[in-house]
Amino acid sequence: MKSSLQVRAIPTDDHLAFIASRRSVSFLQTPAWATVKSEWRGESLGWFAGGELVGAGLVLYRQLPKLKRYLAYLPEGPDLDWTGDELDGALSALAAHLKSQGAFGIRMGPPVVTRRWSAATIKAALADPVLAQLSDVPADEQDTEALAIADRLRSLGWRELSTDGGFAAGQPKYNFQIPLAGRTEEDLLAGMNQQWRRNIRKAAKAGVEVTRGGREDLAAFHTVYAETAERDHFTPRPLSYFETMWDALTGEDPDRLSLYLAHHEGDLVAATTLVQVGEHAWYSYGASTSAKRDVRGSNAIQWQMIRDAMARGATVYDLRGITETLDEDDPHVGLIRFKVGTGGEATEYLGEWDLPLNRALYAGFTAYLRRRG
């Protein structure tokens, strides 16, 4: 049966109005994100049932070298009724529109949570030498309806991407989140492990001061961020990237992006960025100095962001991605240990999925990306 849903480009204002009506939409699905990702071309799309806007998404088009053909990417989107009867039709309408725009393939990351693991469950799993990865651990919550969406996608020709490689712009399948709804600051502290509570108290006793910064403070943030990149062996983004991100996100909503600075006796010891859309807040970038690590500026700054997000109506504080390793010999296990200390929960999303529209061009482009590393 032919779907009654129609897909077409929508103005930025209509897209923002739809986002404002939703409890949670990824910041990667806001119109401003197309400005941040300047190497892509952005387009806001709407799904219409008659004249009613019932879904929306940001599409980023990446051009194939030397050809006017594109990979169409919807990071952590689109925002649809993923469990509704119209899903097949909604995705078919999306494919038809994007193909008409010159897309040879589509990549998307459905914002659908399939499983959750509590901090207590993960802590026990980390202590079990038999368990090597999170997917081996029985989940505390499992959404069978969400898991069934994967079968629907496969039946429509979509392919799930591997989580240990693939596209450079890919988003994590596993995230760590702290539920905030109905909880007090005392509840949140009680949920943290002893080390986190001790570090928060130690920072306060040492006189660490956490403040909100402005655009003019991005340079100071970037200095600490570059130091962190060298220490942790990753390639830092340039200062201009963060300036563009600030201008785009705060231009869309003054409260969309916040910069936090932790000082100790006048020295900047940690700096972070926080993004919030509706009731969902994300810790997006963090940095700390090697000097004065003992004053625990990183714990102090996280605690301030959590409290501020809750005060602004957030029901989820998102610490973003984790790998699923539980192996003590894997250097990535430290990240999950740090985040588990907050007392939150690991969440598994459906992951990212591709739909080839032109198989030859799709195969050529994915090979090109692999060569680029």
TrEMBL record:
Protein's UniProt keywords contain Transferase: yes
PROSITE patterns (alphabetical): FEMABX
Keywords of this entry: Acyltransferase, Cell shape, Cell wall biogenesis/degradation, Peptidoglycan synthesis, Transferase
BP-aspect Gene Ontology terms: cell wall organization; peptidoglycan biosynthetic process; regulation of cell shape
Pfam families: FemAB
Cited InterPro entries: Acyl_CoA_acyltransferase, FEMABX, PG_Glycine_Bridge_Synth
GO molecular function, one term: aminoacyltransferase activity
Keyword presence, Transferase: yes
Family: Belongs to the FemABX family.
Protein's UniProt name: Aminoacyltransferase
Taxonomic lineage of the native organism: Bacteria, Bacillati, Actinomycetota, Actinomycetes, Propionibacteriales
